[in-house]
Amino acid sequence: MERTRAVLLPGSVLPADLAYSELVKSLGPHIDAALKDLEVYAGPEPPEDYTLDTEVEGLRRFADERGWDSFHLVGYSGGGASALAFTAKHPDRVLSLALLEPAWAGSWDWTPEHRHLWREYDQLQSAPRDEFMKNFIRLGVKEGVKVAPVGTAAESTEPPAWMDKRPAGILALLNTFKTYDLNRSALAAYDRPVYFALGGLSNPHDYAAIAEVLIEVFPDFQLEVFEERHHFDPPHRVEPDRVAASLKALWKRAAG
What we know:
Number of helices: 10
Distance between the termini: 17 Å
Number of domains: 1
Shape: globular
Structural class: alpha/beta
Largest sheet: 6 strands, parallel
Radius of gyration: 17 Å
Strand content: 15-25%
């Protein structure tokens, strides 16, 4: 029996193996889940000419190396934005699209609150390095929600070595979001199933606003809300069985 093929893209903080380890276990042996880290972290610094097309081309190479002409695509946060860009460029290769709170989804139909939030994200450019991650995390959750340190092992207060790359990588993503032309018409023509997982404790002016935009773009769009989760306590890490069941249902529907 041929296994279901899926590529999983992480966000801008955790590497793919840490982000998706529990979800892969929940998906089980019949799913060929290929984890791909973001291209923004492929070298010691982001490429000088980095855009979301860098991620699109990296994912194309990744799939080609496996001989995968088509596959299901899952993307969280920055990986979700990359998944949208890939789907717009190569819709025929994406059997279904699962978006786990994508960090960005085009520059159209923004609410005033969403625009104000992105002005705050822009201020991260001048944030002191020791304040950067704290400010970045604060913007992703509802006011008053407390967030445990991201990327620090429970038994240690020392961040892992890969965290050193994160401020530069996050800024590279934020910068490409300002100028990247995400093809709305191409996404609107994508008629395969699209799933969106939303945390109830995430900043509603960010991820819920993005969901409201995309529900008007994709003809086959399903929203699932995880009331107790937020962007840095995401369901694919904390409720992997539930997310796995939703993904399998999506993939079954995509297969017809």
